[in-house]
Amino acid sequence: MISTKVILTGSFGVGKTSLFNQFLFNKFSERYLTTIGVNVKKKIIKVEEEELSILLWDIAGEISQDKVPNSYFLGASGIIYVFDVTRPLTYKNLTSDIDYLKSKIPGVKVKVVGNKKDLITPQQLLELEEELSQPADIYSSAKTGENVEALFEILGRAILGKEA
Amino acid sequence: MLNKKTLAKSTINNPTENFNQMLLLDSHAMVVESCDTLFRVNNQEPATVWSPFIESIFGYLWTLKTGTPEVLFSRVEEPFEELQGFYDFTFNSVTLSGKKYILWTIFDYTMLYKEFQRNQQRMNELELQRQNLNSKIHYIIRKNLTLQQLILSKNLGKNSMLLKANNLLLKNIFIDLEQLTDLVKYKYVGNWVDRFSMKEVITNIKESFENIRNQKITIDISKRVNQLKIMGDQARLMYILYDLLSLSNQTSSNPTICKIEEHEAMHPDLIIRFTILNPCLKIANIDTFINKKEFSVEDDSFLFRLNLVGKLIELQSGKFHEIENLEQGTRFVFEIPFAIL
Ligand SMILES: Nc1nc2c(ncn2[C@@H]2O[C@H](COP(=O)(O)OP(=O)(O)O)[C@@H](O)[C@H]2O)c(=O)[nH]1
Ligand SMILES: [Mg+2]
Is there an atom of ligand 1 within 6 Å of A79 CB? Predict the structure, then answer.
């Protein structure tokens, strides 16, 4: 079985830890507990009958800790860039952040997810899409669980080279 | 697997020192050697330290060359299921009797990082509040709502003229002393006494700003939006503003805020123009202030302080509009954007 390191990144409070917990344990909490470092857990998913073991890194993206330690990125094959659909500051630097990540880890597969979809209306989502400097790959809600599995599936597909 | 040892923590004076464990791992990540200071390595069976964390980096670690700098992973949370807490890890490649190993050092910084986490949490929560505010403003811009529409959209009803406790907040001031002193470019602060008094001046001014920031202001929109009247804690606000601009030690007399007006309703923030008259002041060399860009403590201390206030207003994205000597005293007009809550 292929095993692959995937990193959740993005500003603080966008729902990285919530996506992590929803994906791994189907759990969600309204309470915000700041992540200060890294927490790594593992889950096996199936992509078109092929099993993929995801070693998921939930890392801090907090203010004042402006730089994520370089070592965190070592050996990653996938990155999930999370932003919060209700907070413009979290998607302001979308393109430059992603360019930076790609330059740091050549060949890495990046998926962009707009989280907290449950908090906006379809109309607001349309307006948001116009504002983004590049399109998001998927919109999710760690709260309702919507598109959380789908998110890992599209990333898994990309990592295994099964993209259409 | 590693098991947490029951340690007599009281005997450890400084958890940041002498409180680590070293393990030697072979190519299969099996423990060859361990000093067991923090965790006991199970001796019954070949000890493995395999965990999602190690699994995801071990391949990389094995490519490290002996003699190259160690790799640090800081603030690793719950690295093993049995272990709660925060750890720093370093990894080195070492060669012993011709065989290659990974030397893994574990530092238990749980106590330290828990404190750090509490602080970080407070900061993040504050910043989240601030961003939520901004998102609302962002929404207004996107919708092209005027302030009035916004207020009406808050379901206060057509006839509800008083916007209840509509909080206006100043932006957070995250400036430190270094940054500020840098901004005012003081040149001759050679000794620590000067530095000290400078620090005091800056701290006072900063505090005044902090005070304004925490003011809750009620605005009366009963007339027209462009004639905002600020009610509620107006008196307090007035004194704070006065404090801010009194700049001299004569704090006894009565300043007046002649006018507080909203300036640009469509600006992302609500820009409020303050006019303050300070009857105790007559600035002697007001032209110097207006024409000169940089001040040092060698200058008239009043001008220097005024300049600092100016810089702080600028840091709030505001600006001094006018400073004028009138018969009744000195009049300051300045604008500060407030965020709408
Ligand atoms: N409504 C809603 N709230 C969410 C969602 N995801 C996260 N949150 C909340 O947002 C806050 C920050 O989430 P967290 O996962 O800690 O963000 P992180 O800093 O990126 O790890 C928490 O209070 C969560 O309950 C979501 O999809 N919908
Ligand atoms: Mg988190």
Answer: no
Residue A139 lies in a domain: yes
Q: Identify the nearest ligand to the CA of A12 by its number.
A: 1
Q: Is residue A150 part of a domain?
A: yes
Least confident span in A1-5, B164-168, B273-277, B308-312? B164-168
* SS3 call for B136: helix
Q: Which two tokens stand for residue A93?
A: 């630097």
The domain that holds A32 is classified in CATH as 3.40.50.300
Overall average pLDDT of the B127-141 stretch: 63
What pLDDT does residue B48 have? 78
Contact B335, B321 (CB under 8 A): yes
Q: How confident is the model at residue A107 (pLDDT cuts 50, 70, 90)?
A: very high
Specify the DSSP class assigned to residue B142: H
Q: How confident is the model at residue B119 (pLDDT cuts 50, 70, 90)?
A: confident
A148 touches ligand 1 (CB under 6 Å): no
Q: Quick check: CB of A137 below 6 Å from ligand 1?
A: no
Nearest Cα to Cα of residue B75 among B39, B120, B41, B33: B120
Task: Calculate how close chain A gets to B83, using CA atoms only, in Å.
Answer: 12
Predicted confidence (pLDDT) at residue B187 exceeds the cutoff of 80: no
**Chain A contact set for B77 (CB, 8 A):** 35-39
Mean pLDDT, residues B130-141 taken together? 59
Instruction: Name residues 32-51 of chain B within 8 A of A (Cβ).
Output: 51
Q: 3-class SS at B166?
A: coil
Of B309 and A128, the structure prediction assigns the larger pLDDT to A128
Task: Provide the domain count of chain A.
Answer: 1
Task: Judge if the beta carbon of residue A9 lies within 6 A of ligand 1.
Answer: no
Give B163-166 contacts, CB < 8 A, sequence gap 24+.
Answer: B163/B218, B163/B219, B163/B220, B163/B221, B164/B218, B165/B216, B165/B218, B165/B232, B166/B217, B166/B218, B166/B219, B166/B340, B166/B341
Looking at this predicted complex, what is its ipTM? Answer: 0.89
* Domains of chain B, first to last: 20-108 (3.30.450.20), 114-340 (3.30.565.10)
For residue A118, being part of any structural domain is answered with yes
φ and ψ at B335, to 5 degrees? -120, 140
C-alpha distance from A113 to closest chain B C-alpha (Å): 19
Q: Domain span at residue A144?
A: 2-159
- Shortest CA distance from A61: residue in chain B: B124
Shortest Cα–Cα distance, B135 to chain A (Å): 6
- Distance from C-alpha of B23 to C-alpha of B102, rounded to nearest angstrom: 8
User: Could you read off the pLDDT of B37-86 as tens digits, one per residue?
Assistant: 777 776 666 677 788 999 999 999 999 998 888 898 988 998 777 677 88
Ligand having the closest approach to the CA of A21: 1
Instruction: Say whether B60 and A74 touch across the interface (CB within 8 A).
Output: yes
Residue A164 lies in a domain: no
Q: Distance between CA B23 and CA B107 in Å, rounded?
A: 12
